[in-house]
């Protein structure tokens, strides 16, 4: 505004100067000095007119700026009541936010923990991103390599196309030959079908013979299994009988020895404490030991029979395992026979 007022004052001065210059031109010059002054004034007038035009343009631009600023001022004045409303709303919001701040401060501890966990996740994600960037760079390199390969493949394709055209010509020749070969093949197929019918009849007869043989072998296998089972049971029974005989012989010897030695006194003391006879006490001790032994031997025999049953049910070959099992039982029987014979000699 100050610049505008200064320019207006200058304009007024220049208008006064221009008016004085016009008056001086109207009056006749009495002397040479007046002519010189008139020329000087004309030069000044031209300069002042040029300045005026410049200043007028600047004034116009300033006026436009002033109008724009006035419009801005009006807009700002219109915004003032809105801003006041916003201020009131913001004050209410600030009060609400203060109340929420207290609640948020309480939840801040939990949020801090979650933030820490999220920061860890972010670190992990950044590491993944860096790894992915490296993988992307590698893929770009591969892409460039693939583009080169593509160009090479296109060249190869053009070459192959030319070769294909040549091969198509060869194919047409080959197709003609194939047609001729097919005719020959049909003739061969008719001859082969006749031979196949003849072979099929022969194979049916052979299958019937094989089925009969299979039935005979299956019956033989069942008989063999029965024989093995009966043999195992007989072995077990013979071993059990030998064991019972050995026990009886041992009882006879132990009865004679125990009556003569130290065990008499201990049994007498135990019998006097328990108010039982020595014979009853000996029977109790012998029965407990014998029952335990019998149980052990019965379980072993049961396991042996189950093992043989498994061997018979398993797939071939099982002959060596079966032979080992039966030899084991036979050796046991042999040892028992020797033991029994030695006991019988002593008695």
Automatic annotation (TrEMBL):
It comes from Rhynochetos jubatus. This is CNTLN protein. PANTHER family: CENTLEIN. One of its GO terms (biological process) is centriole-centriole cohesion. Residues 1-32 are annotated as: Disordered. Residues 1-15 have a biased composition (Basic and acidic residues). One of its GO terms (cellular component) is centriole. SUPFAM superfamilies: Tropomyosin (SSF57997).
């Amino acid at each position: 505004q100050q610049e505008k007022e200064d320019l207006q004052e200058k304009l007024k001065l220049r208008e006064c100067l221009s008016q004085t210059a016009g008056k001086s031109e109207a009056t006749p010059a009495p002397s040479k000095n007046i002519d010189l002054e008139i020329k000087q004034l004309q030069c000044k007038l031209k300069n002042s007119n040029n300045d005026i035009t410049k200043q007028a343009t600047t004034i116009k631009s300033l006026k436009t700026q002033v109008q724009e600023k006035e419009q801005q001022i009006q807009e700002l004045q219109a915004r003032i009541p809105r801003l006041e409303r916003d201020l009131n709303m913001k004050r209410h919001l600030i009060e609400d936010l203060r109340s929420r701040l207290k609640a948020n401060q309480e939840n801040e501890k939990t949020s801090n923990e979650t933030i820490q966990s999220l920061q860890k996740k972010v670190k992990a994600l950044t590491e993944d991103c860096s790894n992915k960037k490296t993988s992307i760079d590698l893929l770009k390199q591969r892409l460039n390599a693939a583009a080169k390969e593509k160009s090479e493949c296109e060249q190869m394709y053009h070459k192959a196309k030319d070769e294909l055209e040549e091969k198509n010509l060869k194919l047409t020749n080959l197709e003609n030959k194939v047609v001729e070969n097919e005719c020959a093949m049909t003739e061969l197929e008719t001859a082969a079908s006749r031979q196949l019918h003849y072979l099929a009849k022969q194979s049916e007869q052979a299958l019937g013979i094989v089925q009969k043989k299979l039935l005979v072998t299956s019956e033989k296998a069942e008989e063999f299994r029965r024989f093995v089972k009966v043999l195992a049971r007989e072995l077990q029974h013979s071993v059990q009988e030998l064991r019972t005989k050995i026990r009886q012989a041992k009882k006879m010897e132990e009865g004679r020895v125990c009556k003569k030695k130290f065990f008499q006194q201990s049994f007498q003391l135990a019998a006097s404490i328990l108010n039982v006879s020595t014979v009853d006490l000996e029977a109790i001790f012998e029965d407990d030991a014998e029952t335990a032994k019998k149980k052990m031997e019965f379980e072993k025999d049961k396991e042996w029979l189950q093992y043989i049953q498994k061997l018979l049910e398993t797939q071939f070959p099982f002959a060596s395992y079966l032979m080992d099992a039966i030899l084991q039982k036979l050796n046991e029987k042999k040892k028992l026979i020797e033991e029994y014979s030695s006991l019988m000699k002593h008695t």
